Amino acid sequence: MKIHCLPDPRSEFWGMRKWGPVPLVLFVGIAIVVAVAAYANVLPKNMIGGLAVIMTLGFAFAKIGRMVPILKDIGGPAILCLMVPSALVYFEMFAPHTLATVHLLMKEANLLYFVIACLVVGSILGMNRVILIQGMVRMFVPLVVGTVVAILTGLLVGTLFGYSLYHTFFFIIVPIIGGGIGEGILPLSLAYSAILGQTPDVYVAQLAPAAVVGNIFAIICAGVLARLGVRRPELSGSGMLIRSHEDNSVFTQAQGPQQTDFQLMGGGLLMICAFFIVGGLLEKLVHIPGPVLMILAAVICKYTKAIPAAMEVGAYSCYKFVSAALVWPLMIGLGMLYVPLESVVAVFSVGYVVVCGVDCYRHGAERVLYCLAPQYVPRGSGDRHQLP
């Protein structure tokens, strides 16, 4: 079932200008209602009250992060959604009742685990299977070589600045390699929690600064590589991705808009929950962190086609909803409860920033190595696939 939005005269009344997904005037009204309830200590102390707080702030700061020049190019939404709530808590701008309400949602209801499971499992099951298999085969060698070089370089620089190999690898390099906040730091925090014993929030506070600083350097590195690609288009395959004599249609077919089946989406959500539970059960048997086993189980099921395609679509629909609507609000909750400002400031130093920068630039070299890999598309090849 797909809902088609017909012209509505009420849209003209509220205005077409939006703040996030909500009309600006309506968003201001909602924000006032939530703020008054929080100030008067009558905010519902349940999931509804907690969601109202973090979604209002999440939509607000994500929008600002996308609008501010320079900041919008270095991960502005993530930076603001993590650091501004942390600063507001530090300066005691939130009432204890409001913090308790968000605490119930984030820690007792454990919204963090729910969002991570939807992001990880849903994205894996929603991937194109042929691209997943063939892409991994072709990228394996250059990715491994580039990653190893980046790790060794980061460890060397970290040692020169006085960091231990353990701290440099697990709390600076790995968060950068992990690939961002929503699908990098959050799953990592679960794995670290399962291995090291403390709650995930402790590790989010320690891992997030590296991801934020690394993101800044990654943007700079990407800009340099983009200019290199313009000057030397043959290094990037002239816009072609990989060479394959089979499955041409899979790579070239245009993906049209898919209808949203809400019942199927519910089935996908149930399956995501089942994967999370399976990971927890297997953890008791093999003593490997449950989130890692959850990911492996999803990859195996995707590879073997063990799950009906319709259910994969349902799980992917959950992923799209969560990634679009709940990631920034979740960042707000993490910033309020799990990212103490004094702890974040304490980790920053010249050496810390240098290690992050070196690691990102070595990853840039990894991308160049990938472009030059023998399995990459050669110039003049007639059997190529266009990038979407």
Automatic annotation (TrEMBL):
<protein>
    <submittedName>
        <fullName>Citrate/malate-proton symporter</fullName>
    </submittedName>
</protein>
<dbReference type="Pfam" id="PF03390">
    <property type="entry name" value="2HCT"/>
</dbReference>
<keyword id="KW-1133">Transmembrane helix</keyword>
<feature type="transmembrane region" description="Helical">
    <location>
        <begin position="207"/>
        <end position="230"/>
    </location>
</feature>
<keyword id="KW-0472">Membrane</keyword>
<dbReference type="GO" id="GO:0008514">
    <property type="term" value="F:organic anion transmembrane transporter activity"/>
</dbReference>
<feature type="transmembrane region" description="Helical">
    <location>
        <begin position="111"/>
        <end position="132"/>
    </location>
</feature>
<feature type="transmembrane region" description="Helical">
    <location>
        <begin position="74"/>
        <end position="91"/>
    </location>
</feature>
<feature type="transmembrane region" description="Helical">
    <location>
        <begin position="169"/>
        <end position="195"/>
    </location>
</feature>
<feature type="transmembrane region" description="Helical">
    <location>
        <begin position="46"/>
        <end position="62"/>
    </location>
</feature>
<keyword id="KW-0812">Transmembrane</keyword>
<dbReference type="InterPro" id="IPR004679">
    <property type="entry name" value="2-OHcarboxylate_transport"/>
</dbReference>
<feature type="transmembrane region" description="Helical">
    <location>
        <begin position="262"/>
        <end position="282"/>
    </location>
</feature>
<dbReference type="GO" id="GO:0016020">
    <property type="term" value="C:membrane"/>
</dbReference>
<feature type="transmembrane region" description="Helical">
    <location>
        <begin position="139"/>
        <end position="163"/>
    </location>
</feature>
<feature type="transmembrane region" description="Helical">
    <location>
        <begin position="21"/>
        <end position="40"/>
    </location>
</feature>
